[in-house]
Structure formats: C-alpha cells, structure tokens
Write a structure and sequence with these properties.
Metallo-beta-lactamase, Chain A; Arc Repressor Mutant, subunit A; 2 domains; seven-stranded mixed sheet; 13 strands; globular; binds zinc ion; hydrolase; hydrolase activity; Metallo-B-lactamas; MBL fold hydrolase
Length: 345
C-alpha cells in the first residue's frame, strides 16, 4: 500500500520509492483544482515507482487519466522521471522553469560520448589524478556511452515563470525561482490560509531546495556549452534567504517529511554553509586544486571509501565552494598554474 498523507485543504502526498537510493522515496504531492488534480513532481521512472504512484492515486479515488497538469520543481529524475508517462496516460500538461527545460533538451539531444568527453576534460582541469580519469577514457574508447535516466525524460510543454501564479483553477500557487540545486529549481508557494490554522503565510512545496534533515547537493551547473562562470552556491544561498522571508506556515518538501519552521531551517543551512566556507578557507592557506581540496574536505565517509561517481559529485561541490570564495574575494586562482590551484587571500 502506498503511503498517502492528507495535508488538508485539498493537498495530499504520496510516497513514491526511488529504487536503490538511500533517499528512499520522493513525496509526490497531489493538489486538487477546479479542473482536476495536479501533481507537484512525479517520481522516478521505474515500474515499482509507477505502481506506487498509481495505487496512491487510487487510494484517493483518482485515476492517473484524471491528472490535469504536472508541475515540476526541477529536472532531476526522482522528480521528473514519470512525467512523460503521466502525460501519455492523461494528456496532462507538464510545467518547468526554462533553465531546467534547457537541461532536459540538452541531455536528450547530446551526441553519444559528449558527456564522457566533457567529464574527462573537466576532471583533468580540476586536477583529478590519471587513475581517476582513465576509466572514463576507456569507456569512451570502448564505445560505452552514458546511460543516465535523463536521456529519455519528457520535454515540458509549459513554462513556469518566476513570480507568477500558475494557471490553476481555484488555487493560488505562485512560482518562486530558487536556483542552486539546479539552475531552474522552483519552489511553489500555495498562497492560501493553512487548513489547520498554523500561523504564517500559506504553504510551500519546496522540492529539494529546503529539506528538514538533508543539505541538498550544490555542485556546478554542468553545461558543456556554457562559457560564463555561474555561482550555484551563491544562487542557492540567495534563494534560501528569499524562501526564509516568505514566512510560510508549513513546508511540504519532496523528500523526508513536512515541517513548520522554515525560517529556522533556512538559518541552520546558511550557518552550515558559512562554516563550510570558513573551513575551506583554512584549507586554502596553501594553494590547492579543486581535487586536492575535495580530498581534504569533510564528507560523510573518508575519501578513500568514496566511490568513483560520488567523487565526481564531491569535486563539483568543492568547485562550487571555491567559486563562491572567489566571487566573495576571499580566494583567488594562482596565476600560471595548470591544473589551476586556488589560495585564500
Ligand atoms: Zn534534486
Ligand atoms: Zn530529489
């Protein structure tokens, strides 16, 4: 039986499992509108997840054919994976922020091998040792291409415009652009009185931006074609402050559980990143490449035990932090170094 939670005021959440992932599940939210139910996120593209989604809807007396629209917080496969299937079965529209729609298009249209070339070049540039890069080169040479889930994900047919109300009959749901975790991540503010009378201004579908017990991954926005240097961590911290100021009564995140104290959680996350940036600055007393920095940073296990793919994620996170420090004028690239090293100023 799919675990279904009623949040009141025509909002429910369904626990849709993510196979072989420590996160466990995505909370897919169902929002009742005058033109039919709308989903906020859909879950991972997998038969078990699809079964749980449809049986969860069934427990609410709904069929997937009745879904009127799909609002996606961000393009990651645990959120957008089943959107295409829902649209096929119901004719629902799919809405996403333009920056994440661009990621979906790029991923679908990429030439086979583009990703491996990009990762090889990028990892070399950040100082990854040859033994880390060699398997990627070998995969390319052997014609083993990327088989990540995003290759088949659905192209949205509606755009979520920041600051605007979504076109939902009888509901006030406003899009708040919260880049950081992805370039087009949005939170959705349900500007209606809390059904149980909790104090505050409405409720917030927070996607992965604000979770009660997890600090979301902030790496670089991976875009092989992009020349200008983005600052995802800076975007994320700004987005957190924006959410903190909304004064919402309750947060309905896409993982874990609903919680009330949004401002308190925002404060904790801001303090966590400040502490992390300070720690990095002391590591950068001597010049380090992003790879050397990642090796020295604190992770949830020793560096030696972190598998290959997770090291790529870790080094991307280290780079995002370095980029923030550079933007703040607290670190700089050492001229003439290759791979480039950074040092605190
Ligand atoms: Zn995500
Ligand atoms: Zn997620």
């Amino acid at each position: 039986m799919t675990q279904v939670t009623e949040h009141g005021g025509g909002v429910w959440s369904l626990r849709v499992p993510i196979p072989d992932n420590p996160l466990g599940h995505t909370l897919v939210h169902v929002l009742d509108t005058d033109r039919g139910p709308v989903l906020v996120d859909t879950g991972w593209d997998d038969p078990t997840s699809w079964h749980e989604l449809t049986s969860g809807l069934g427990a609410l007396g709904l069929s997937v054919q009745e879904i009127h629209g799909v609002v996606i917080t961000h393009h990651h496969p645990d959120h957008h994976g089943l959107s295409g299937r829902v649209r096929e079965e119901s004719g629902a529209w799919i809405a996403m922020h333009a920056a994440d729609t661009a990621v979906v298009r790029r991923t679908r249209e990429a030439e086979p091998g583009t990703w491996l070339d990009y990762m090889t070049q990028k990892l070399t540039a950040v100082g990854a040792p040859e033994e880390h890069v060699a398997p990627l080169r070998a995969a390319r040479a052997a014609g083993r291409m990327r088989t990540l889930p995003g290759l088949r994900s659905a192209v949205p047919d509606r755009e979520i415009v920041p600051g605007e109300l979504l076109d939902l009959a009888g509901r006030r749901l406003r899009a708040i652009w919260t880049p950081g975790h992805t370039p087009g991540h949005v939170c959705l503010h349900l500007e209606e009185q809390h059904p149980a009378g909790l104090p505050g201004h409405g409720r917030l579908f927070s996607g992965d931006h604000l979770l009660p017990g997890i600090s979301p991954h902030i790496g670089l926005y991976e875009n092989p074609g992009e020349a200008h240097e983005t600052d995802p961590l800076g975007d994320y911290l700004d987005s957190l402050e924006r959410i903190g100021r909304l004064g919402v009564a309750e947060v309905l995140p896409a993982h874990q559980y609903a919680f009330a104290d949004a401002a308190g959680r925002v404060h904790e996350l801001l303090a966590h990143h400040e502490e992390r940036l300070t720690g990095l600055l002391s590591l950068l007393a001597a010049p380090l490449t992003p790879w050397q920095l990642a090796e020295r940073m604190e992770w949830n296990r020793p560096w030696a035990e972190i598998p290959h793919g997770s090291r790529n994620i870790a080094v991307s996170e280290a780079e995002a932090h370095v980029r923030r420090l550079v933007k703040l004028g607290r670190a700089e690239a050492v001229p003439g170094t290759d791979p480039v090293t950074y040092v605190a100023v």
